[in-house]
Amino acid sequence: MHPGTEWLLSFSPRPTDVRAAWRNEEFAPIPSTGWTVVEASCLSSLEAMRPLARIGQLGPVLVDPSADVAWWLVADGAADHLSDLPLLTVRPHGWALRCPPAHLYFDGRCWLEKPDGTGKLTDPIELGAAFGPGGRLPAETFR
Questions:
Q1: Shortest CA distance to 49 belongs to which of 63, 36, 35?
Q2: Pairwise CA distance, residues 19 & 91, whole Å
Q3: Residue-wise pLDDT tens for the chain (143 aa)?
Q4: Torsion of CA 136, 139, 140, 143, to 10 degrees
Q5: What is the pTM of this model?
Q6: Alpha carbon separation from 36 to 65, 69, 120 (Å, rounded)
């Protein structure tokens, strides 16, 4: 099994139920207990991904293009850094992310940046900079 899929399973209190849902090509609820979910539009997320990837700060990003929604998995404490950005919605601790396994997609929902199994997450400060006024990371980030 893909290491990112195993990592997602490690957060479920009912991994057997999650595996069964995935076998039936259904989304499974994974509670955000080791990370925070931040929601944004797909288009703005695509624009933010490139600079974050360039500086090595890109963690898992799940997208559903038909609903124009992207879900970023970020380090806990995101609300402290992102609550004042209107393009982002910070979901509460434990919020269930309904997702496919890391290595598959269902009904158009897929991981643009897959969980890799290491626990790497997007840094909320860098995400805020990418979505903040001007949508640009500070120039010193690229030095």
A1: 63
A2: 24
A3: 899 999 999 999 999 999 999 999 999 999 999 999 999 999 999 999 999 999 999 999 999 999 999 999 999 888 888 988 999 999 999 999 999 999 999 999 999 999 999 999 999 999 999 997 655 444 444 33
A4: 110
A5: 0.90
A6: 21, 16, 12
Among all chains, which residue has been given the structure tokens 């539009």?
A: 41
**To 5 degrees, how large is the angle CA 64–CA 88–CA 78?**
110
Alpha carbons 51 and 101: distance in angstroms, whole number: 26
Q: What are 30's two structure tokens?
A: 């994974």
Q: Tokens 């009904």 identify what position?
A: 107
